[in-house]
Design a protein that fits this description.
The strands form 2 sheets. Strands 1-9-8-5-2-3 form a 6-stranded parallel sheet, covered by helices on one side. The chain has one domain: Rossmann fold (3-Layer(aba) Sandwich). β2, α2 and β3 form a beta-alpha-beta unit. α1 crosses α2. It is of the alpha/beta class and 232 residues long. The protein binds 6-phosphogluconic acid.
Length: 232
Amino acid sequence: MHPAFLTFPDPDAVAAEAATRFLTLAKAAIAERGQFVVALAGGSTPERLYKLLATRELDWEKIPVFFSDDRFLSPASRFSNAGLALRLLPLSPQMTFPVPAETTLDAAECAAQYERELVAALGPEPHFDLVLLGMGDDGHTASLFPGKPALTATSWVTHSTPGVLPPPVDRITFTFSLINAARNVLFLVTGANKREKVARWRAGVGSVRTLPVLGVAPTEGTLTVLLDEAAG
Ligand code: 6PG
């Protein structure tokens, strides 16, 4: 499966396109199945998108929100991906599922518990309506870092020691199995620091081990990469 790479002038245009797609998918999923099951991305790129979504009409009571990865930290931490979303979006507390970092001893236990919560909510074969992802300038996505064991995990959720990018905190992450079971996967990738890896990605140069984004290939779902000109 080769992604559809779409290039936009700047990060604001990328966020606007992502917001339009999010709203369209949410409306269709809620009409069809009564809910829109989404996994939000971490890092800084989605911030613009979350600020836009906060101004739109969305029925968050019908949107179970998970996180495609997070750091082994409380949502209260400024480094928490869930914390970013909770600060920017009017999420429904009972429909928001941060990784259970506060009630588990380590990232391994946290990942196992998160998988149990996810399966309890979505069933034994979880299919997200939308998984949002970013890409680090080392080519990682979620917390699937180059050369790390998490790349070959066969569970739905796994854990990882930190990659090369800060913060140096253990991670909990969706695996490729879970990401690739989604109905729609949408990447937001902006910034000149991503250009070299995006070029390799588009050329299909490298392996999942060296360029983890190559491991995202939804079995039946859509795969779209929204780029700004600096990255693309
Ligand atoms: C994380 C993120 C990570 C992120 C990329 C891009 O926990 O760090 O989930 O996968 O999407 O590192 O980060 P930026 O958007 O900040 O460039």
